[in-house]
């Protein structure tokens, strides 16, 4: 079945527009502690820059490669010198390293308000007939277990500093529109892992109502970012397109809160 190529909007933007501009006062993240997984990579790095423009209290960057994390921090600091940035090396499949990092952040700042979960792995794009059962779960582990570990860690960290209070946290999970489209040949491993992660996070959010979960699709284009959202109880199709180099997640959130 061929995948659809629908047009979801009348207007297509290829750069950040006023409605989602992070410098808008209404989109300020002042006072918020924002943590980004996969901040050493493409979308995570772009997200860090955009969040910095909205003036968060602290920007916390997680990834495995310290040099790439430092590069993200340097890029952001060069444009937004006043933003407090911390970097943590953390392997998402290692719950201890992720919990240690988030606990430290929560203790220092009194909690974590927003997590943008950008870390992910594109599993080998091969027909399933050729998929290697011995390595099939490699990408799954980061996507599925890593998403669970991330969600657990932020809730546990917030509980640690605010026992008895379920501090609200916004969790934005980067997924793929492939989870709601007809199958794409060669993408079975990747898409099925993304479905599993979404289902786990949905269950997690039901069990922990202080978690406001958004599943977001960034398009495959390196220039354009096609967003879709899936609320906890129903599906919505792609909503808007913005420049991937100027991703404004809090703009997404403002929009998502209105649906
Ligand atoms: N780019 C696209 O076209 C596209 C389309 C649809 C969906 N997505 C989704 O959007 C998200 C970001 O994509 P991207 O293109 O920015 O990916 P990317 O450039 O490959 O970056 C992936 C990030 O994930 C981190 N990561 C991977 N495995 C990890 C692990 N086990 N523990 C900790 N961190 C880990 C990497 O950090 P280190 O290398 O430092 O470990 C890196 O920062 C992913 O979830 C992806 O599936 C992307």
From TrEMBL:
Ranges of residues in domain Ketoreductase: 32-219
Pfam families recorded: adh_short
Keyword Oxidoreductase: yes
Keyword Mitochondrion: no
Key words of the record: Oxidoreductase
InterPro entries named in the record: KR_dom (IPR057326), NAD(P)-bd_dom_sf (IPR036291), SDR_fam (IPR002347)
One GO MF term attached to the UniProt entry: oxidoreductase activity
PANTHER family xrefs: ALCOHOL DEHYDROGENASE
Family: Belongs to the short-chain dehydrogenases/reductases (SDR) family.
Protein name, UniProt field: Ketoreductase domain-containing protein
Organism of this sequence: Penicillium freii
